[in-house]
């Protein structure tokens, strides 16, 4: 028997090949998931932009030319917060750290500006960008 305080979790995972053209599809899915958590269109747009930027960083504009075959996986879960993890195996084109500013080029700036709960984990298996937002 479920008590009145029980929460349900809604989640979805999307896996794409490293093709920059597919990032748009992931942005649309992220907006749909965000809309389930909040009817606030500003929030939906923030999530759409952040997920799109995270995917673009891990897909890389030249990934198909570099012969990188590992897919990019995006997991989105609605719990007490909207939690999104974007993962990619293999080499990730973005070489600098999320806190760096190399020659005035900072690929992580948009993500840091949109999300207060943002982290990057790198290891031998690849890179994972984790983001979360409180539901409004």
Main sheet: strands, sense, barrel: 5 strands, antiparallel
What is the helical fraction, as a range of percent? Answer: 25-40%
Whole-number total of structural domains: 1
Number of helical elements: 4
Whole-number mean pLDDT: 79
How far the N terminus sits from the C terminus, by CA atoms, comes to 29 Å
Q: Summarize the helix and strand pattern as letters.
A: EHHHEEHEE
The CATH homologous superfamily name equals Histidine kinase-like ATPase, C-terminal domain
Residue share in β-strands: 25-35%
Q: Strand sequence of the main sheet, in spatial order?
A: 1-2-3-5-4
User: Which topology does CATH recognise?
Assistant: Heat Shock Protein 90
Structural class: alpha+beta
Low-confidence stretches: 1-7
User: Which CATH first-tier class would you pick?
Assistant: Alpha Beta
Number of strands: 5
The CATH architecture category equals 2-Layer Sandwich
Indicate the overall shape. globular
Using only CA atoms, what is the Rg?
Answer: 15 Å
């Amino acid at each position: 028997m479920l008590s009145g305080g029980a929460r349900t979790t809604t989640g979805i995972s999307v896996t794409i090949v490293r093709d920059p053209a597919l990032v748009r599809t992931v942005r649309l899915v992220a907006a749909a998931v965000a809309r389930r958590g909040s009817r606030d269109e500003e929030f939906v747009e923030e999530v759409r932009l952040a997920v799109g930027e995270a995917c673009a960083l891990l897909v890389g504009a030249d990934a198909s030319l570099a012969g990188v075959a590992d897919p990019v996986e995006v997991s989105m879960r609605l719990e007490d917060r909207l939690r999104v993890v974007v993962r990619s195996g293999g080499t990730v084109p973005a070489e600098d750290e999320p806190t760096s500013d190399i020659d005035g080029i900072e690929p992580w700036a948009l993500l840091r500006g949109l999300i207060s709960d943002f982290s990057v984990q790198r290891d031998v298996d690849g890179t994972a960008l984790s983001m979360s937002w409180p539901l409004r």
